[in-house]
Amino acid sequence: MTPSTAPLSLYWLPPAGDFSGEIAAARDAADDAETLFRRLVALAGRRLDFTQTLRLDRLLIASRDRLPARAPRLRLALAGNATLEQLAPGIRVGALRRGLLVDTLVAPFGQWRQQILDPGSALYDFKPDAIALLLDAHALLPELPLSASAQDAAAAVETAVDDVAQSWRTAQDHAQAAIIQLVPWLDEPPVLGHLEHRVPAARGALWTRLTVGLTEAAAAAGVALLDLRAASRAVGTQQLSDPALWYHAKQSIAPAAASWIGDHVARILGALRGLSKKVLVLDLDNTLWGGTIGDDGLDGIVLGQGSGPGEAYAGFQRYAKRLAERGILLAVSSKNEPAIVHAAFERHPEMVLRRRDFAAMEIGWGDKPQALRRIAKDLALGLDSLVFVDDNPAERELVRRTLPAVAVPELPEAPELYARCLADAGYYETVAFTGDDTKRTAHYAANRERRQMQSAATDIESFLRDLRMTLSVGPFGAADVPRIAQLINKTNQFNLTTRRYTEAEVGALMQDPGVVTLAARLADRFGDNGLTTVIIGRKLDDGEEPVLDIDSWLMSCRILGRRVEHAMLTVIAEKAGAAGARRLIGHYRPTPRNGIVRSLYAELGFTPVAGDEGSGETAWALSLGTAPLPPTDHVSIVHNG
Amino acid sequence: MVQPEIYDALTQILREIFDDPTLRAAPEMSAKDVPEWDSFNHINIIVAAEQRFGVKFRTAEIDGLRNVGDFAELIAAKRQAA
Q1: Element (H or E) spanning A618, and its range?
Q2: Do B62 and A245 touch (CB under 8 A)?
Q3: Which is the most buried residue in A166, A198, A546, B75, by most CB within 10 A?
Q4: In a 3-state reduction of DSSP, which class is residue B22?
Q5: Matching CATH topology for A72-272 and A458-639?
Q6: Is CATH 3.40.630.30 the classification given to domain A458-639?
Q7: Chain A contacts of B50, Cβ < 8 Å?
Q8: Mean pLDDT of chain A
């Protein structure tokens, strides 16, 4: 039987298997917190139908208090004009699939406006980290006579968009929450057929104008989009809307589609929490081309013009190349002779991807889990950043069993469906796209050159000196806010407190006179690494004397191991002194990913002042002016602003 | 005539939705017999049955349901028509 590739079935996930048995086992086992969490996340990673999703959600809710404190959590408020309760289990299970625990609040039916406007509403009492505004086309489209002019139609849509944007601003004023706005599909049948988009006041034309207006307004307001325009077309809007249940119970989203839409919402939540994937690891034979290069030879593989499958493999390579362009790192894991593969990438005339497109290559006869571990290590990323694409079901199964953190799509058998499968799975969702993203592969290539230089250098001091680093540092600038928010939300390793802030919150920090912000770019002889370091300090008085409390300190893994932290310490110490502080206070809040900075403050000369046995949190202090600072002669510091 | 396997499947659905292995679908059973049978779970039962039996209910059909017996007869009629 050929498996379905209908998106609503979540076909990229492996089959549910003995779901009932495993649900019962998870419920009855006396697991410790970590084992239970792993078990639930693994179950959420299966292809679950409507009822299975409800059952897993029920178990998840019943297990809430037994799950590890370190698991990331998020509070999500759902507000909309229709019945939304059926969506909540799909969202919670979709988030669990990403290792994220979500608590939801569904605003009372028909009251989204009151809930947003009233600062004392249940929605704000819930203290949401994110508010999803799920207004469907029924709620958003203005009512106009079909004879209305283009100007009137444009004005009516603008009013409707302004109205929604005003709700965002109100919500941003009342809550420290990321706002997520649904860009809905249109489920009303057309009255003008093929002319529906040519008549300005027709519902279809109004809807097109409205979706464009919402998208632009959201970009201006720093609001995330749950943009289901394209995806709903691929699925079929009649599958997403259930007219019987709309008229029966005001369900504007078909409950049967709840797992799929829930997964889409969870992608946005995951992106807000830095849980999106970052790397695409590709097998070669029968994944990037047809045939086995070791047997068939360079001229024997199926790739490019001359055959349908050859064109399809080339099409998949083009898709991978576009992913690389948007900042996804490509890597290879293949069981082959390296020389044969390198020759293919260099010499095959139809090859779209070339060696320079890959940030890492593991070609050899070892097993794939080992290769994936090396790739993650090489790129200084966690295994949970990887997506592994392989046509071979046995390899996929081995990786799923050995490395459950790696996402492994259930690839369709036909190469023409590979790209669609990756897109449907939504691994690489992001809430911002910056100029830095397009340069990522080049950054990693430059890193490889730096490492080669490092192995040539006899000692670390001369290596760092030879890099000729320049650190440009200053307070947050308005133009850098999207990149700063992206770093704050994506950085997991060199991140002392892992506090996440939305763009709106970053903007508020910039205005706050009690806050000191620092953003830094690092350049060296191999190129510009871009904006890669952020510090947020708060001026406090700890009862004894004024201090600067380091709320957040994070650095992209791209520039680790270069003692940039020493330079940043001298800068923040200087700024703290200028702000009247007598001491710097630093905090370390442990997560599964930030072990590398556990002893950072100790290494920088801070003394411990507090520690919490249970949470593992520690606090540190450094007296300004008296304690010696580490040397920074390996980097020249340029102040801007 | 409602085939027994329809009641068996409905029993399975009710047990899964309410997480209660003691439930058994019976003609006279209705929402008032199960404490958790609210409007949320009512929709869940309808959608689960649509998926299990491969049918699609009309809004008039959903509005007319009084008890599990009505539901089973509706499913039987829809399956016969399909």
Answers
A1: strand A618-623
A2: yes
A3: B75
A4: coil
A5: no
A6: yes
A7: 256
A8: 91
pLDDT at residue A2 greater than cutoff 60: no
Q: Is the pLDDT of residue A40 over 90?
A: yes
Give me the residue from A50, A247, A256 closest to B59, CB to CB. Answer: A247
Q: Is B44 on the interface with A (CB under 8 A)?
A: yes
| Cβ contact, residue pair B13, A51, below 8 Å | yes
Annotated domain spans of chain A: 11-71, 72-272, 279-425, 458-639
Structure tokens at A213: 């207006």
- pLDDT of residue A6 exceeding 80, the answer is yes
How far, in Å, are A2, A101, A270 from residue A65 at the CA level?
A: 41, 11, 21
Fold classified for A72-272: Rossmann fold (3.40.50)
Sheet of strand A224-227, all strands in order from the earlier edge strand to the far edge: A101-106, A73-80, A130-134, A178-183, A224-227
Please tell me the distance from the alpha carbon of residue A175 to that of residue A126, in angstroms, as a whole number.
10
| Residue of A49, A247, A249 with shortest CB distance to B51 | A49
Phi and psi based region of residue A344 (left: phi greater than 0; alpha: psi -120 to 50; beta: remaining):
alpha
Residue with tokens 């300004």: A624
Cβ-contact A618, A586 below 8 angstroms = no
Which candidate from B13, B40, B61 shows the least CB-CB separation from A85?
B40
Chain B closest-CA separation from residue A51 CA (Å): 6
Nearest CA in chain A to B12: A51
% of chain A with per-residue pLDDT over 70: 99
Q: What fold, for B4-81? A: 1.10.1200
pLDDT band at A431 (very low <50, low <70, confident <90, very high): confident
Residue A1 has pLDDT above 60, yes or no: no
Residues of A in contact with B57 (CB under 8 A): 244
Edge-to-edge strand list for the sheet holding A279-282? A358-364, A329-335, A279-282, A386-389
Band of residue A207 on the pLDDT scale cut at 50, 70, 90: very high
What does each C-alpha distance from A241 to A92, A244, A257, A420, B77 come to in angstroms?
A: 21, 9, 8, 23, 24
Q: Check pLDDT > 60 for residue A478.
A: yes
Whether B57 contacts chain A with CB within 8 A:
yes
pLDDT per position as a tens digit, B5-57: 999 999 999 999 999 999 999 999 999 999 999 988 999 999 999 999 999 99
- Give kind and range of the element (H or E) at residue A279: strand A279-282
The torsion of the CA quartet A22, A28, A31, A33, rounded to 10 degrees, works out to: 90
List C-alpha distances in Å: A586 to A268, A551, A555, A574.
31, 8, 15, 15
The complex's ipTM works out to 0.86
Partner A contacted by B7 (CB < 8 A): no
What tokens does A194 get? 């093929």
A248 to B62: CB separation less than 8 angstroms, yes or no: yes
Query: In chain B, what are the domain boundaries?
Result: 4-81
In total, the C-beta contacts within 8 angstroms joining chain A to chain B are 47
Q: What is the pLDDT of residue A230?
A: 85
Beta-carbon contacts of B40 under 8 Å, excluding residues fewer than 6 positions away, are A85, A86
Helix or strand run (H / E) with residue A583: strand A583-588
Helix (H) or strand (E) holding A220: helix A203-221
| Mean pLDDT of all residues in A610-632 | 88
The CATH number of the domain covering residues in A279-425? 3.40.50.1000
Would you say residue A630 has pLDDT above 70?
A: yes
Minimum distance, in Å, between the CA of residue B13 and any CA atom of chain A: 8
Residue B43 and residue A256: Cβ atoms within 8 Å? Answer: no
For the whole model, what pTM was predicted? 0.79
Facing residue for A256 by CB, picked from B13, B47, B63: B47
Q: Which residues of B touch A51 (CB under 8 A)?
A: 13, 16-17, 44, 48, 51
B39 CB neighbours in chain A (<8 A) are 249
